[in-house]
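Please go through this protein, sequence plus structure tokens, and consider how the sequence yields the tokens. Keep your notes short.
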Amino acid sequence: MYPEISGTRKTGSEAFKSEGRQLPFDLLSFWQWSSSDLVGNALRGLLAEYIVAIAVGCSDRTRVEWNPYDLETPEGVRIEVKSGAYIQSWAQASLSRITFDIRPTQGWDASRNTYSHQVKRQSDVYAFCLLEHRHQETVDPLNLDQWTFYVISTAKLNRFVGAQKTISLTALLKLAPTEARFSGIRPAVAEAAVDE
């Protein structure tokens, strides 16, 4: 059996190698090539996870791609992070409609390479991260003042939406999640976790 490989934190200076010698490009150059479009859906989702990880104090670990939830706080609160934005990196006829994926899943255990038998939402808390800026010329995902965060317990989500697969921003707001700026994410997560 091959055990799970734990990711080690990289610095960016790690060089590519070939035929026993270092090549004149490194991991940082790969990151710059692959990860500079912060407005695009896929990378913006990872950025949202990182922002929440910083806020709740668990960014010292590396991201685990296949965990059944996105983050775990030092206190053991499991968080699912979802992101949305009005502005996309592609040409748009109008601003995007905000909808988040909330489908229940089978949790996968990477250490055992097995799925759980139960289909459910795997986290204790959801953090919905909205890049709410609406001007293409000035959108900047690194400016945390352009984001609003909505935090809600998974238990509350389950009570009101059952096995529903998606939720619009309008429907989410009707559930009265805690609205926060960056500095308020950590207390909002702690408060929502109590509802579990």
Observations:
- Residues 37-194 form one domain.
- The chain has one domain: 37-194.
- The first strand starts at residue 15 and ends at 18.
